[in-house]
Amino acid sequence: MRLDHENDYVIEMLHITKEFPGIKANDDITLQLRRGEIHALLGENGAGKSTLMSVLFGLYQPEEGEIRKDGKPVKINNPNDATALHIGMVHQHFKLIEVFTVLDNIILGAEDTRLGFVQRKQARKKVEELSKKYGLAVDLDAKVEDITVGMQQRVEILKMLYRDNEILIFDEPTAVLTPQEIVELMQIMKGLAKEGKSILFISHKLNEIMEVSDRVTVLRKGRYVGTVNTKETTAPELSRMMVGHDVQLVVDKAPAQPGETVLRVTDMHVASRLYKHDAVKGVSFEVRKGEIVCIAGIDGNGQSELVFGLSGLEKCTGGKIEINGVDITHASIRKRSEAGISHIPEDRHKHGLVLDYNLEQNFVLQTFEQPRFQHMGFIKFGDIRKYAERLIEEYDVRSGQGPVTIARSMSGGNQQKAIIAREIDRDLPLLLAVQPTRGLDVGAIENIHRQIVAQRDAGKAVLLVSLELDEVMNLSDRILVMYEGEIVGELDPKKTTVEELGLYMAGAKRQDRKKEASA
Question: Given 199, 250, 313, 351, which residue has the most CB atoms within 10 angstroms?
């Protein structure tokens, strides 16, 4: 065990305080990063983790405190100053230009020019070498809008490495990745640390922190709780430090009591956005009152397109969708909503919120026309305010200015909680929940799981789409596995194993559901 000498630390953030209107995001926080270590930053949604890293990257200026690099005080006024100090950051929501190629995104802002011309050949060579060295395979000529989220993250990492960054900040890097991509990222991070890079890693996922980090610093409600060596702690101890009480990591639920069919999907086809074939190929299933049916699968096997087809974000190219016997196959998004679908979307920024509206406006996006919120065309602002205050309280949505907080200014986890509060509270027959706990901490996950089970027990039909195997196994009453646009298996979570589920997800096993249905 090494002693903590001052020159052991490549970065020190000492007594950092950062305030926003109505909230102290960081309250006297000290964080010290050793050379060549992976240091995890753990805390609830809104605990101040991303804010602290944004201070280090120069996006925010602290009211108090000092940053030191290699023992010497430094002033980081903006991200260019951070880059000059070899500090790089992969943000939770990627900062990429979708219509640019991968190569252009990597070199943007750090172009090597001669006589005004970008030296693309040299840049390509350097990126290819980095890509090979760190196992970050990417297609340099593909447009960012056409590549998967996992690939986009590799582009962000290559952006940091291209700038010769030594201190690498990963803000919730696994929130949008598949289990396979997470394993790959962990290997990449370990490889980078072996090369002498120092990594700050924000995460809510305790198993990942236990797997990859050397030390963990825990924040709670903007304050420093403590720093521990990962080898000397356990996941339950970390969750207790994080939320201040014991957290139940297993979902407690009674057996399902399914009633009549709410959602019936027959021979559904949805075209792929990227390719000329169908992303959803002849899918048929039903979801009944009082049950949670989960669509499981490796990302990119048609789950997103299935959800788009159900919610109306994409047109079906074939088949039929019915809610309580009413055909909604060609209905508009609003008509589907009125027919009984509430939808927690996969992409909270694109499809879940209007980011420049405040919280109370976002809460009534689909319901402001209802008599409780308007009379003869005039909005009842007082009633909307009371409604927003109730949802904020019930779902623990943490925001600096309550109902008038602009959605964009909130942490990703609290944005997610706001969407879940709105959709569950609409009290409709079908809840379509896509990655509902993405980016949430263990305390919030426990609460959301409880809410989803309560919906089931109240007689709602729940269609869950999740990439988290623990969530799939814990929460669902039936599992439908999607592979290459088809449902290849229906499993009972009580009678199957994660290994068997994995075989179906990888396409190695397949049930003949048509035969079973006719039997």
Answer: 199
